[in-house]
């Protein structure tokens, strides 16, 4: 048996934790506890993927799993898939249980997310060139989004779309150019506990790229599809929460 897990909502590049507030409220209505965290490389030049890995461990994973012994599910949006794939090393529930330790990650949900292989950089994974919707500012060391509302929130209703676009910040250029370390989403402990949610009308990360990430990962995924943009946590939070509740229930059932 496993306890009701805490859902960790990790938005991708350019986003801060408040991007997940509306979605998190829907999860709470469904009876699930959540925590959210923006990544360290957002609005901080010079930081790398490894800084994001360390921040995830220090601020979320170690306190919740190691200190508090909680079961968790990671919901990883876009770039968050890269640092989280390394940060989960040794933290699956099965690995910890085998050592007599409580808590751990019971499952992974990648939403329109990067699935790195060891040594990948984000820039390599998008073909070696910055996206047309990005502007690189060498002086500040940050990438900027030219039109965040169109790129991330094309199907989000007003005034929420404008509000959300106003909370998009620069992203460390070094996070695009730094290599991922070892990755752990593919270990046996996550078999049947690994879901990929595709977004079919994604303006930021085209569906073909998402398909390639899954295909190149070398492991099986439970694939789900949403007819929406890069940010269903804002465009359709209630239906996304219902989907996630079902997925989490499936994860829990694998431990019974």
Which descriptors would you attach to this protein?
256 residues; alpha/beta; six-stranded parallel β-sheet; three-stranded antiparallel β-sheet; 36% helix; globular
Structure overview:
- This protein is an alpha/beta fold.
- Helix content is 36%, strand content 17%.
- The chain has helices at 21-29, 49-67, 81-87, 93-98, 122-125, 148-152, 160-165, 173-177, 207-217, 232-235, 237-253, and strands at 6-10, 34-36, 71-77, 104-111, 134-137, 142-145, 171-172, 194-199, 222-226.
The count of β-strands is 9
Strand coverage percent: 15-25%
Give the terminus-to-terminus CA distance: 5 Å
From the helix content, strand content and strand pairing, which structural class follows? alpha/beta
Please provide the ordered H/E string of secondary-structure elements: EHEHEHHEHEEHHEHEHEHH
Q: How many whole angstroms does the radius of gyration measure?
A: 17 Å
> What low-confidence regions span 5 or more consecutive residues with pLDDT below 50?
none
Give the neighbour order of strands across the main sheet: 2-1-3-4-8-9
Fraction of residues in H or I helices: 25-40%
Total count of helical runs of at least 4 residues: 11
Summarize the biggest pleated sheet: 6 strands, parallel
Cα shape: globular
The mean pLDDT is 96
